[in-house]
Design a protein that fits this description.
This protein is an alpha+beta fold.
Length: 814
């Protein structure tokens, strides 16, 4: 006799003796095991035939002893089925509290296994005429959408039509509350939105959506929908308990049923008359939906694609601007492809190139001159690459916030100006990245078009006037209201069709490059990215010797996730490397304008794999170039030796001497950036060499070793900056370090990694920088965007005043 049969025997003995107290515990075990696939024979039928008083007593014992504190869902399912049967005929309220508590446990799950007892419980509730709790409806819907074989859950999800959305997300809770307040047409709108399960809406779906929107009114519908979308991505109002059947952390992902509704709401917005708020809301939805969730990837690319589709169907300037901005910022391949398609279609319709459409799509955001929108209550101005709102009273006094009279009389103006400032900041970031990639795009412009689209454009002019250009073969920059040469002479009259392109230091004489750096400083021009101070990577003797590959950035240990993210931003195709039995191509950048493809060979570090199965670290190898269209190389995840795809002939690499100097320099600059950002060598907490100290030698050599080209450029800049610092008398640039004299000790900050050594004993000092350190106030800087420079300067400011340090973690090392 097995344990289960013994339990059945014990239960029957207590049942025959009418010993209800003794029956409760073994009966609960039997019921729990029934929930776990066992059969109870005729025991339950006998229990249900007990007199009403005995059933009430047994019901009280079971709920008090077992349903109150248990957290084993399968056990609870079987037991709950039993108490539901015992409660029949005892009044509808006999299990009200117990039922609510049990369903609350279910509502905290993401989904359940298909063999779970939830389907039986839901069917019992419906048969009894009781409403199924909203949280339980959500579990049923999520299970039906995510289970490999949903079974009965799919049928249940089809009949559970209320509520219109799943509860538990900030936006859906708000939408349901609004619909309950505003009336049935709003609930109908939400239900229709939730039917958006295809890749794009049908004509019938659009017709039904338009009819619903007509009943609500365009302005009212837009305001409500964009308000809901503004809440998307906020923390769940009902966090999940445990992992559930999906086996992954789900709190940061969209509820899959609600995700369909988000797609539908995006499509519905496209049916309304164009409005800036619509484009703004859809653009934000794209970015929020593509935000990475650790171990999973983008939150929901399908929702992002739906928002892109909606933007592509709105024919106004604001929507086109959002498409152009997103195309410069998005790195997820599927959504980027859809953005490219949308912009390509718009370009074809206008008879323009894709590049021209992107340029013409940049709006002025109300700016009436380059970088400025004066108004009677203050000014909106672009200062230092950021939109700044200033206010003044009717008497002309500057104030920090909008005047009270303006808040009272024109609140919509304040809202509009603040929204414009946020939009400007987003667009400036996107356009800065786009312009920084134009060197390899070989983009040229006719002078007249360039002036209209860049130099004199109210927004892009704030970037273009801080860059250097070659106009009709003459290098120039903007200063004192005109284009000026290196000698400060005005450029004068230029033919409208004269060619314009971005100036690049490759191939320039060192004296010219140094001259432009002085020119920028003389005119106090801070460039939006490195141009005059851009690192240049000429071919070395070692690379001439290897011929077809560069080992300049081989032998590094990189954190895979930062490398993967940065590669995407810089236009490289880099698959996330998983510890699986599969082949992966190297990190690749296509260079169609040059007929080339660049490859950076990397492989995973076998011993360290994340929970999602991806390698935590990578080791680096060669940089190579191939002709466009040549057979790709791949390497097995666990081997790392690159070669052609099986069955294909290997492609011949292009000799480095045949790669155009600008291409070689820009590609190697990207790779230097990857190493500089993602190397474990610049992680101050890795002084022990990471797991088991395997990389101690590498960390030491990178963290305090020879400077890269980027670090050398940083050293040259610091040599000019240090004399202007408030702590200048305590600082000096020597070799690879910025030396800082404090009152406690003297310190050496490595100019490549930002790591610190305390002198004279050479003891390592660990100071972990903030995630996004701001550059200390040091006066003029010639360019923006060097995070390591900001770290070095911040550490220098701190260490020069080391007696004022209060951080316990730092003090303990001093």
């Amino acid at each position: 006799m097995n344990d289960f049969e013994e339990l059945l025997t014990v239960c029957r003995q207590h049942l025959a003796a009418r010993d209800i107290e003794a029956l409760a515990d073994p009966l609960a075990c039997v019921a729990g095991k029934v929930g776990g696939y066992h059969r109870g024979g005729g025991l339950f039928a006998q229990v249900e035939e007990l007199p009403e008083a005995d059933r009430r007593r047994l019901l009280d014992l079971l709920t008090a002893r077992h349903l109150a504190g248990e957290d084993n869902q399968p056990f609870l399912d079987g037991l709950f089925k039993l108490v539901v049967r015992l409660a029949r005929g005892l009044g509808d309220d006999a299990l009200t509290a117990t039922r609510a508590a049990h369903f609350d446990r279910y509502a905290a799950l993401h989904s359940v296994a298909i063999f779970d007892g939830l389907a039986d419980l839901v069917e019992d509730e419906r048969a009894a005429g009781r409403p199924v709790p909203a949280g339980v409806v959500a579990v049923v819907r999520r299970t039906a959408l995510t289970a490999y074989t949903p079974g009965r859950m799919a049928g249940l999800a089809a009949v559970l039509t209320e509520p219109a959305l799943d509860v538990g997300e900030a936006w859906s809770d708000t939408a349901l509350a609004d619909a309950a307040e505003l009336g049935p047409p709003w609930s109908a709108l939400l239900r229709h939105a939730a039917t958006a399960t295809a890749a794009r809406p049908t004509a019938g779906w659009n017709a039904q959506g338009s009819a619903l929107l007509d009943r609500l009114g365009a302005d009212t519908a837009r305001t409500r929908i964009t308000g809901w979308l503004a809440l998307v991505g906020r923390p769940r109002t009902l966090p999940y308990r445990g992992r559930g059947y999906a086996q992954v952390a789900q709190d940061d992902l969209y509820d899959p049923y609600n995700a369909n509704a988000l797609r539908g709401l995006a499509w519905l917005l496209a049916l309304l008359p164009p409005h800036p708020d619509t484009a703004r809301a859809l653009g934000r939805l794209v970015e929020t939906s593509l935000r990475k969730v650790p171990g999973t990837g983008p939150r929901n690319p399908k929702v992002a694609n739906a928002a892109v589709l909606a933007l592509s169907r709105i024919e106004d300037e604001a929507a086109l601007a959002e498409l152009a901005r997103l195309a410069a910022r998005v790195t997820f391949k599927g959504t980027l492809k859809q953005l490219d398609t949308a912009l390509g279609a718009r370009a074809a319709a206008l008879g323009m190139s894709r590049e021209e459409v992107e340029e013409l799509a940049v709006p002025a955001y109300g700016l009436t001159e380059v970088g400025r929108l004066p108004h009677e209550h203050g000014e909106l101005a672009v200062t230092g690459g950021k939109a700044v709102l200033t206010w003044r009273t009717p008497a002309g006094k500057a104030v920090k916030s909008p005047p009270a009279a303006l808040k009272r009389e024109q609140p919509e103006l304040i809202t509009e100006l603040k929204a414009a400032a946020k939009d400007i900041d987003k667009m400036l970031r996107a356009q800065t990245e786009r312009l920084d990639r134009q060197f390899l795009a070989r983009r040229t412009w006719p002078y007249a078009a360039w002036r209209a689209r860049y130099l004199d454009h109210p927004l892009l002019g704030t970037l273009a006037r801080r860059l250097l250009w070659t106009v009709d073969g003459r290098a120039c920059g903007w200063a004192r209201g005109a284009l000026r040469t290196l000698t400060d002479e005005e450029l004068g009259t230029v033919a409208e069709d004269a060619a314009v392109e971005l100036w690049h230091p490759v191939g320039r004489e060192p004296a010219e490059v140094a001259g432009w750096r002085d020119w920028l400083e003389r005119h106090a021009v801070t460039q939006p990215f490195k141009q005059a101070h851009r690192e240049v990577y000429p071919l070395t003797d070692a690379e001439r010797a290897t011929g077809t590959y560069s080992n300049r950035f081989a032998g590094h240990v990189l954190r895979q996730y930062p490398f993967h993210a940065l590669a995407a931003v810089r236009g490289w195709r880099d698959p996330l490397r998983l510890a699986v039995d599969d082949d992966f191509p190297p990190a690749t950048r296509e260079l169609p304008r040059w007929g080339l493809r660049a490859e950076y060979w990397v492989e995973g570090v076998e011993e360290d794999v994340s929970e999602s199965g991806a390698f935590v670290w990578l080791t680096t190898d060669q940089v190579r170039f191939y002709r466009a269209g040549a057979a790709e190389n791949v390497a097995h995840a666990h081997v790392g030796r690159y070669g052609p795809v099986r069955g294909q002939e290997p492609a011949e690499p292009v000799p480095l001497a045949e790669v155009p100097p600008l291409v070689l320099s820009e590609v190697l600059r990207d790779v230097d950036l990857f190493v500089g950002v993602a190397s474990v060598g610049n992680d101050p907490e890795w002084q022990d060499g990471g797991p088991e100290g395997r990389f101690r030698t590498y960390w030491q050599s990178y963290g305090f070793g020879e400077l890269s080209q980027t670090a050398l450029a940083r050293r040259d800049l610091l040599a000019r900056l240090v004399p202007r610092l408030a702590i200048a008398e305590r600082c000096s640039v020597e070799g690879r370090f910025l030396h800082v004299r404090g009152d406690r000790h003297t310190y050496k900050i490595h100019l490549g990694s930002g790591n610190i050594l305390r002198t004279p004993d050479g003891r390592y000092l660990c100071i972990v920088p903030k995630a996004a350190p701001g550059t200390p106030a040091v006066g003029y800087l010639p360019f923006e965007g060097d995070r390591t420079l900001a770290i070095v300067l911040s550490k220098a400011m701190m260490l020069a005043r080391d007696t004022e340090i209060t951080d316990p973690a730092v003090l303990s090392q001093l």
